[in-house]
From TrEMBL:
Compositional bias (Acidic residues): 259-276
Gene that encodes the chain: Dwil\GK15925
The organism's taxonomic lineage, starting at the top: Eukaryota, Metazoa, Ecdysozoa, Arthropoda, Hexapoda
KW rRNA-binding (keyword) present: no
Biased composition, class Basic and acidic residues, residue ranges: 277-287
GO BP, one annotated term: nervous system development
MITD1 C-terminal phospholipase D-like domain span: 103-244
Disordered: annotated span: 256-302
Segments passing through the bilayer: none
MIT domain span: 26-79
Protein name: Uncharacterized protein
Pfam family, one: MIT
Length: 302
């Protein structure tokens, strides 16, 4: 899906009277490069800025309204596209994690679904206030970046820290800066009303975890197993549902041969979903068997 930049950006004489258009320029770039989920949020940020300006400066209300309609219409079209895909999603797997279980790291649970087809990842995690929360977040990002070679955007939504908001902002900005050194753009937003915990990948995989990222018991002793390798950590009881729908963006294209394969695959989404489900199911079965064997061997004395 593409759009003409000239139809969305105001002419130079009007641009001077509008707020900085960085978010709308980035939204257009994201949409044209296939990063649909990030484009939606950037359009929404532009809409919010224009609404603020129209309220604060009544003399610019008409000018803002002119572009508000354009951006609202485009954001709605993209949202409807995503919703259509989500409504047609299939349940790939349901996992029940028992209390004190081990061998359930992010890599083992989600690794089969993190691959080169993932260009964007959106994470809703309401609770990011304690040090252990940030350790979990960084570990998840490590797994995500290591597995997804063409990852370009990460969008994190969380609740604001009511006690030490400055500390939360400092840590998130630090993580964002670190990811930027690898050409991965992380944007985060704060939402007081956030409750749902989920991970949405541009490949069409949606992961819902009852406890969000924080299904591990806290590792207090820095010298204990599990401080670095989360497979050794004990878990809290929770459920995980993994869904699959059509991808929100096409897979990265590398060679002419792969271009032809991708074009054929665009017309074979149902077959691809079945093959994807079968492959993920096999990978997941092997990984769970390995995790169970590891846990039994390492902790048979418990």
């Amino acid at each position: 899906m593409s759009c003409k930049t000239t139809n969305f950006l105001p002419p130079d004489e009007e641009a001077e009277d509008l707020p900085k258009l960085e978010s709308i320029i980035n939204a257009l770039k994201c949409e044209q490069s296939g990063h649909i989920m990030e484009a939606i949020l950037l359009y929404e940020e532009s809409i919010h800025k224009l609404n603020q300006m129209a309220t604060a400066e009544p003399n610019k209300k008409q000018l803002c309204g002119k572009y508000l309609k354009t951006y609202e219409s485009r954001a709605k079209q993209l949202r409807d596209q995503v919703k259509t895909h989500l409504h047609a999603s299939k349940l790939l797997d349901h996992l029940s994690i028992e209390r004190d279980a081990r061998g359930r790291s992010y890599q083992r649970l989600f690794g089969p679904y993190l691959d080169d087809s993932v260009k964007e990842a959106h994470l809703n995690e309401p609770h990011l206030t304690e040090q252990q929360h940030y350790r979990n977040l960084v570990n998840f990002f490590e797994v995500l970046v290591k597995n997804c070679r063409y990852l370009k955007y990460i969008r994190l939504t969380t609740r604001p820290d009511p006690v030490v908001p400055k500390n939360q902002m400092h840590i998130l900005q630090q993580i964002r800066s670190d990811l930027a050194t690898g050409n991965i753009q992380m944007n985060f937003q704060l939402d007081d009303t956030l409750h749902d915990r989920k991970i949405v990948l541009s490949s069409g995989v949606v992961i819902k975890i009852g406890r969000g990222l924080h299904y591990f018991e806290n590792c207090e002793d820095i010298h204990s197993l599990g401080m670095c390798d989360f497979d050794f950590r004990k878990c809290l009881a929770t459920d995980v549902d993994i869904w699959k729908c059509r991808a929100f963006a096409k897979r990265p294209r590398i060679t002419d041969h792969e271009d032809q394969v991708d074009d054929r695959n665009d017309d074979e989404d149902n077959d691809d979903d079945d093959e994807y489900q079968e492959r993920c199911s096999k990978d997941d079965s092997r990984q769970r068997a390995t995790a169970a064997a590891m846990s039994h061997a390492a902790y048979s004395s418990e």
